[in-house]
Hints:
Number of strands: 10
Structural class: alpha/beta
Strand content: 5-15%
Low-confidence stretches: 1-7, 240-254
Oligomer: single chain
Amino acid sequence: MASADDSDDGWDEFLDQFAKQRYKNAFSEDNWEEEIDKIPLFMKKAPEVIDPKLHPEWACIQALINDEDTTPEEKATSLKNEGNAHFQEKKYDKAVVAYTAGLKTNCEDQDINTILLTNRAASQYYQGNMRSALSDSCAALKVKPDHLKALIRGAQCCMELRSFAEAIRWCDRGLKMHPTDGKLQELRSAADKHKRAAERDARKAKAREKKERNEREAVLAAIKERGIKLLQPERPSGCGSDSEDQEQGGGPALDLLSQEATGARVFLDEQGALQWPVLFLYPEHQQSDFISAFCDSSCFIDHLAVMFGEELPPWDTDRKYLPQNLQLFFEDEEKEALYQVEPDMSLLKVLQHKRCFVKAGSPSFIVLVRGSPFCKHFLTAKTLKGM
């Protein structure tokens, strides 16, 4: 048997020999960070694809997770940790996959299941999947009714979904069990504030809608009283005949009073006169003018004197669009006929003509230069009739 002294001498000799030898597999100054990052414990992030040859340590961990001898609780815990790692790296989609796999392990530990559900709810929340996050929060509360994180997450989801009354209910439910929780108190205060603001906006919108409806009905009544005819927009085939589309002031759709092309619509002023959006078309130059409020009692010459007064339009290079040179017409599209309008006529008198129909809420008139070559050519293609 070797003595203690012999043993000590042998150890000293071993240490001396070890000190003289260089460890061949040691980390170098150039690659030590790379080598450390290959160890799962020190990895900054998990590899995207685990290759057993390149990542033997990870392969061992996966084998442990999938080991038949591993209990469902152990598998669920491992998958929960994997999901948490993805969550920390803001890879919320991968976190959802891991938490979902954990929930499928048939784990009987309700605490683990609750955490998996609330963590998955958090991942869904940060992906913007509010309804899925809310569903997971509800499921977590079925397992553990007083779980604080689930209560908070459910309230947050309702806030994002603008279901402020429901958010208040979640907060009230949570505050019964956690009366001093600051986050629930903060959420409830915010939900109540948003709820009152939404209700106020809804009341304003309803009042505004009612006012606009009353104004439109008053305009329609004034149109009917004056005997002005509105032409309904074309309907898809099978939705009514042309005769049904042509209204004699008897209840046309309210949206006829809007003019999408110009952004203006007919309205009643304080004196009870109708102010119409009117288009003037100049086919010779492919130009147009728009008057947003043409009073039905005003005459055409009043507007022509302003439009073609001291400053003529830049496209009139021949300087021939002078008020005294102009002829106005409205078109009867059904009969393909033009009706001449005298400049001293009022808009109302023209609109009351039996063959004048207001289309899309905006009367339109063609303007030509009397006696010009274009005017003569243009009129030959149409049937000309007088007022």
